[in-house]
Write a structure and sequence with these properties.
Length: 174
């Protein structure tokens, strides 16, 4: 099982404006995200991200979209939508049982923090956009957990977009 976090961020680490705006996320990034979605067995997101995704949800071509929510009335289990309140570790076990081994976590900040706390993130890809927002939604909601990273690659795209790819160093004290 490999869990990759993929997020578009501002140069100061926000993933959306305070009002959930992501119009600043460029087309090049959307195309990259699509590529990662297609190359993953399943994607995982929080309930709020599902809600702001509109017609983009469910993402991908017949891809399993997992959404975490405590709202049981939203829970479903179909070939493209698995809406559940499983804890991150339980969820990954369940996906593994279903033969799904590469999982893409696509936000937002609250669910990212849940997975950070659970210690199950293996790889982090940050698509850094050339802007700074004075206020916004953090990449991770504040949480008592840290990650040490090893830089794997830096790629520069048009529109001054930079992709940072990191491997998570497991069991490192910070
Ligand atoms: N820049 C990017 O790449 C990017 C990507 C994704 C999202 N975003 C932005 O991020 C914003 C949304 O992020 P957010 O942090 O506000 O919310 P979020 O993480 O998308 O969703 C939070 C919700 O997910 C559910 N949840 C999270 N962890 C859970 C767990 N362990 N168990 C059960 N349920 C869990 C809860 O739903 P319930 O309250 O229903 O229980 C929680 O309120 C939007 O503005 C979106 O546009 C940006």
């Amino acid at each position: 099982m490999k869990l990759t976090l993929y997020m578009a961020i501002t140069a100061n680490g926000y993933i959306a404006t305070q009002n959930h705006g992501t119009d600043w996320v460029c087309d090049t990034d959307w195309a990259q995200l699509e590529r990662y979605v297609e190359n993953s067995d399943a994607i995982v997101m929080g309930r709020k991200t599902m809600e702001v995704s509109g017609d983009d949800f469910p993402y991908g071509n017949n891809k399993l979209n997992v959404v975490l929510t405590t709202n049981k009335s939203l829970h479903v289990d179909s070939p493209t939508k698995f809406i559940t309140d499983l804890a991150p570790n339980e969820l990954l076990e369940e996906l593994e049982k279903r033969g799904l081994n590469s999982v893409l976590l696509i936000g937002g900040g609250i669910i990212n923090a849940s997975f950070l706390k659970a210690g199950v993130i293996d790889e982090v890809i940050l698509s850094v956009h050339p802007l700074i927002l004075g206020r916004g939604i953090n990449l991770f909601k504040p949480v008592d957990a840290d990650l040490a990273l090893e830089l794997i690659s830096i790629d520069k795209y048009d529109e001054d977009l930079i992709h940072l790819k990191y491997k998570v160093k497991k069991n490192v004290e910070i």
